[in-house]
Amino acid sequence: MSTEEFLQANEQYAANFNKPDRSLFKNMIIVTCMDPRLNPYEQLGLKFGEAIHIRNAGGSAKEALRSIMVAQHFIGVNGTISIFHHKDCGMSRVTTSQMRDLVKKATPGRDDVAAEVDTIDFHHIVHIEGSVKADVKFLTESPLVLKGTKITGWVYDVDTGKISKVDEAIAVGA
Amino acid sequence: MSTEEFLQANEQYAANFNKPDRSLFKNMIIVTCMDPRLNPYEQLGLKFGEAIHIRNAGGSAKEALRSIMVAQHFIGVNGTISIFHHKDCGMSRVTTSQMRDLVKKATPGRDDVAAEVDTIDFHHIVHIEGSVKADVKFLTESPLVLKGTKITGWVYDVDTGKISKVDEAIAVGA
């Protein structure tokens, strides 16, 4: 979509705009991949305004931690944190080492870029259920996550549209 | 929503599941805030499968860079990167320093947590249009973003549902 198409679609949206229900804002946090095959509003039946939604390559809980801290400590979200990874994820088809090589090949002769990219952890995924469980464990044990927070871990199947729950834990806090 | 409600809503979704059109997958990248008032599918008229969507507190392009690199260098996305920040954003109402204090107060006596949180840049926003322009500039000048990528910057108004474009540039690359 071009700038003009964004503006045209948004004009129609704004013409019938209704603000979401404020009482829903602090209900929950979901973390998913950036993959275009994921649309949690449809796939989980989320209402407008119901979820703080964090997305990044792979759905990494580690990278999401800054946002989770803002949601819990500043905004006051007190509900469940749900982590969704998905089958056929790009991050399960490339490693951190391979990502570094790809970027270096695209920037020949730039030693500064090579040095910078060598500091980046791309959070690649070796095993989909294992990565969900590792992320649930990371949040459960992090002192930066509020004690008592319920953490659930899920896998979304891009071929069937189905979710399945693979883990659940309660954050131990600081 | 509880685990049971996720599963119930998803069961209905999966019963009528259709895979998205693969030809859309590499079209564009959008970066937005995690705020529950943002739903780009509705607000921009996005089709299912049309956009790689990265979300974090504030819609920070800096934090999105790892994901953008995966999208461009591995997945092969060659379209526009659109950055959306929004009015009344939580990240414009709290500073990095205030976030650090909030976390320290919630974890008394934990010097290790205090030391860790002092290393985190919370990417707070001083001026909404200024922050969009700074993020467009950051991506435009980053050698980690592919040369020639069109970068657009937008503000979403949570009170009216309207978007407005505030910046546009072409990435200079490595």
Automatic annotation (TrEMBL), chains A, B:
Amino acids binding Zn(2+): 33, 35, 86, 89
Coiled coil: none
GO molecular function: carbonate dehydratase activity; zinc ion binding
Taxonomic superkingdom: Eukaryota
Pfam entry (one): Pro_CA
Catalysis: reaction(s): hydrogencarbonate + H(+) = CO2 + H2O
Names of required cofactors: Zn(2+)
Stored InterPro entries: Carbonic_anhydrase, Carbonic_anhydrase_sf
Keywords: Lyase, Metal-binding, Zinc
EC numbers on record: 4.2.1.1
Cofactor note: Binds 1 zinc ion per subunit.
Enzymatic class: lyase
Family named by the database record: Belongs to the beta-class carbonic anhydrase family.
Family matches, as PANTHER family: CARBON DISULFIDE HYDROLASE, CARBONIC ANHYDRASE
Cited function: Reversible hydration of carbon dioxide.
The name this protein goes by in its record: Carbonic anhydrase
